[in-house]
């Protein structure tokens, strides 16, 4: 039996015990999951040995998540990863349930910002560029660091001591240069920051049994991957799809389901040891992003 925790749509979400996989909830999951976070909670809480803590900034409106809270091993905690006080309160709540330990933290929450289809020099104004970058940095970099810091004390008492932070293949400089992707600038640049933050944690906790792993979930059918909000951006989406096609493996099926992505990521996570700490890999466990 393993012990785990994580962070989802919600932000961080944690599960305490991790055991055999089960499939009896798969049809239920398919009907409700629209984000990676929800699928992480659904997947991990389907094992009764796990205790899962899901952090949501607006739990009252997270109806699909609330549906999962009917499971005895799911706890929903209100927290915003940009708000250290709310994270501390969440960590205190976890501490009370688990007697002070946590096995896995999953930093899943992120934003794509207000200009996902804008190149660096195409923002309507420099002020809007600055605001978009600050917003992305607050959530995608500082939020992950604040959440990790808040839960490190309980993780130190855990058995597996694993921190999984979600990034994207768009944070791999070689891949981005190779395909010529010029959009999602604030998102891509801040996601690069997560990799370095994990490397810094890996360096500090090298000899303490921790595994800090940055992972890309693939292209996943979630709200984030939804169609562009502005019709004029549809052509840019097609342009990017054609770029992805140049690095897609033979038979690439396109965007995958949250179930497939989360299951693949958890398999990769299970296979990691402290020797992998600081690595950035895909849901395949390598540097193939699609
Ligand atoms: N989908 C893809 O194709 C894809 C590809 C590469 C990487 N990723 C990465 O995979 C992860 C999951 O993304 P997703 O596709 O599931 O996106 P999503 O559907 O947009 O979900 C993002 C989640 O983050 C939460 N969140 C945002 N800011 C938060 C904050 N300040 N505090 C707490 N929670 C916050 C959101 O909560 P609310 O519900 O309150 O808004 C939402 O639940 C992200 O890190 C993303 O960058 C996704």
Layout of helices and strands:
Elements: E1 12-15, H1 26-32, H2 36-45, E2 52-56, H3 63-68, E3 74-78, H4 84-98, E4 104-107, H5 126-156, E5 162-166, H6 173-179, H7 185-204, E6 211-216, H8 234-245, H9 258-270, E7 280-282
Parallel strand pairs: 2-3, 4-5, 5-6, 6-7
Antiparallel strand pairs: 1-2, 1-4
Helix pairs in contact: 2-9, 4-5, 5-7
This protein binds NADP nicotinamide-adenine-dinucleotide phosphate.
Residues 9-11, 35-37, 57-58, 80-82, 108-111, 139, 143, 166, 168, 216-217, 219-220, 222-225 line the site of NADP nicotinamide-adenine-dinucleotide phosphate.
Your description of this structure?
It contains 9 helices and 7 strands; from the N terminus they run βααβαβαβαβααβααβ. It is α/β, with parallel strands linked by helices and 290 residues long. It has a 7-stranded mixed beta sheet with strand order 3-2-1-4-5-6-7, with helices on both faces. The model is unreliable at 1-33 (pLDDT under 50). It has a single domain (12-282), classed as Rossmann fold (3-Layer(aba) Sandwich). NADP nicotinamide-adenine-dinucleotide phosphate binds next to helix 2 and helix 5.
């Amino acid at each position: 039996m393993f012990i785990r925790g994580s962070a989802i749509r919600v932000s961080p979400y944690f599960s305490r015990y991790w055991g055999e996989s089960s499939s009896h909830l798969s049809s239920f999951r398919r009907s409700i999951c629209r984000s990676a976070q929800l699928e992480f909670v659904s997947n991990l809480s389907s094992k009764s040995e796990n205790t899962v803590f899901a952090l949501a900034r607006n739990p009252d409106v997270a109806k699909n998540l609330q549906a999962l809270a009917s499971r005895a091993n799911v706890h929903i905690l209100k927290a915003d990863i940009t708000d250290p006080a709310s994270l501390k309160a969440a960590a205190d709540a976890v501490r009370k349930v688990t007697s002070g330990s946590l096995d896995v933290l999953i930093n899943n929450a992120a934003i794509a910002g207000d200009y996902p289809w804008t190149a660096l020099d195409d923002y309507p104004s420099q002020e809007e560029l600055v605001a978009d970058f600050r917003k992305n940095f607050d959530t995608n970099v500082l939020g992950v660091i604040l959440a990790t810091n808040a839960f490190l004390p309980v993780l130190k008492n855990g058995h597996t001591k694993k921190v999984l932070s979600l990034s994207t293949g768009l944070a791999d400089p070689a891949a981005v240069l190779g395909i010529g992707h010029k959009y999602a600038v604030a998102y891509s640049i801040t996601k690069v920051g997560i990799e370095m933050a994990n490397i810094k944690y890996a360096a500090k906790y090298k000899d303490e049994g921790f595994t800090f792993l940055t992972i890309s979930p693939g292209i996943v059918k979630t709200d984030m991957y939804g169609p562009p909000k502005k019709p004029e951006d549809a052509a840019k989406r097609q342009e990017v799809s054609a770029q992805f096609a140049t690095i897609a493996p033979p038979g690439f099926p396109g965007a995958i389901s949250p179930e497939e992505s989360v299951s693949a990521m958890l398999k990769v996570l299970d296979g990691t040891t402290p020797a992998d700490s600081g690595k950035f890999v895909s849901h395949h466990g390598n540097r193939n992003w699609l």
